[in-house]
Amino acid sequence: MRLLRTGTIDLLPLDESRPQKYAILSHTWGKDEVLFEDILNGHPENKPAYDKVKFACRRAAADGYSCIWIDNCCIDKGSSAELSEAINSMYAWYQEADVCYAYFADVDASPETDIKSEDFRNRLASSRWFKRGWTLQELIAPCRMIFFAKDWTVIGKKIDPEEEVDLRGVLSSITGIDEDIFKDPQRLHLASVAKRMSWAAGRETTRPEDLAYCLMGIFSVNMPMLYGEGGVKAFLRLQEEIMKQSDDQTLFAWTLDGTPDSINHGLLATSPSVFKNSRGIMPYEDYEPRAPFQMTNRGLSIELPLSRLDDNTWVAALDCPVPPAYPDYSFLAVYLQKLSVDSDQYARKRIGRLARRPFPRHIFQLRNAPSPEQYRIVHFVYDDSTPQPPRLTTSRIYAQQGSLPGPATFSIAKGAHQLTVAIILEYVPNGELLTVMLGSSVDFRVGYNAAALSDIKIDDQKQFESFYSYFQARAVESVGGIELENHDVKVKMDSKISGANKYYMVDVEVVAKVRTPKLLDLLVDSVSEEMGSREQVGRAKSSIWAKITTRTTKRL
């Protein structure tokens, strides 16, 4: 990688120190470009495109820069090592440049041209510069950027502090890139993988492999150049490099229009063009790390929550909420088909569309519980290996219980039919223990179950697994609740969206089926004066009731 001296239009010697500030040129290639060897041989003026180099150097010199970088004449493409280094570091060259000049060779303008007119902006949008792959990173990376028409008339700036001709809005409408990224390129990492891919969906490169190579800087990855491998292989390699650094599952949220449902495909795309409708897709940010996924000799190894549609069709939910335009807060998903009955390998089907599934995992928060005088929470059994999410201030259970034997919020396990927490309740009158279990059902809906603790075989060393083996989620919407021998249990929930989280606010209702018999009440009341205090009366009543009930209990 070399720099051109703007005064003499020759290459800065390799042994000469690189200046701290330099200009850089962004342009589209045409016929008879000035190449590295032309500059080296000292006869670049013989090329028709020399005027572009000359005017770029003249503008840079007028702006006070002694050097400029121009890709066509500053890279020795005869050296594969230098070419690979240049492509892998090109984003950094544009990022570190003090100013970038973007030259539109196909846009006519003059000092009299109304730059702000709709007609001119439509002509600007049709420029070849917005169709090329390499100019995408050249638009994003530099902080300072000046745009020039065919005759080097200034069109405007990417960001104009004086807001005379600030082109952020125009550039955003043409490219789909968020305006705040133009203002601060460091915000690029906040854009999802799918959104960044969508920016390249309509762009082209002369060599098919370059459509992948020109995106390396935008995703902060590096990989060797293998010209001749083909565009598909290069793009697959790019995605593999992205997966090494990111668990953003929007990488799989693409569609290929007009494709028959019967076509088998992998989860990875073959071109950025399939992301053209994926700009609004964002990853779900949660409090638990996702299971890592990677390429193996059997394909992509990844864990996704599955639900069956029919004998051989499944839906795999991605950690990608449906864009906010939809009111139901569902997740995007892909259709899969098992390659064989006994196989653990799947192929993607119906690649012309994405499915929508309910949220596969969010947060349970206990909000209301039975009166502690009747049912006291004595224990929570849950997988405590993951951090607990924050609770919303709308929880009322602390006021009811006074204190809890653990947290009030629990991350709902991802996947179908997964247990999240078992809440152990003590029926105060006789000490009987029962459990209310919360988790997800087979169709990814939130659900619950309940049981007398004596019905569950408890392994004290593996309490969570003990409850897990018993757990069979009932739908929250089911009528009537769960009937135990001595208690009726009902769980009600409603959801609240807070930032990137969806909370399921849980109300637990438990009612004892059999009350203390009237005869027992009359018996105890008749001798209450002889027995003394109210506390003694209560203990006597509980003792007699415990003898009447023959149910065995087991305490944790």
Automatic annotation (TrEMBL):
Limits of the Heterokaryon incompatibility domain: 22-109
**Where does the source fall among the domains of life?**
Eukaryota
Name all DUF8212 domain ranges.
233-255
Instruction: Write down a Pfam family by its short name.
Output: HET
Output the PANTHER family linked to this UniProt entry: HET DOMAIN-CONTAINING PROTEIN
Q: What is this protein called?
A: Vegetative incompatibility protein HET-E-1
Whose protein is this, by species? Lachnellula suecica
Its lineage reads: Eukaryota, Fungi, Dikarya, Ascomycota, Pezizomycotina
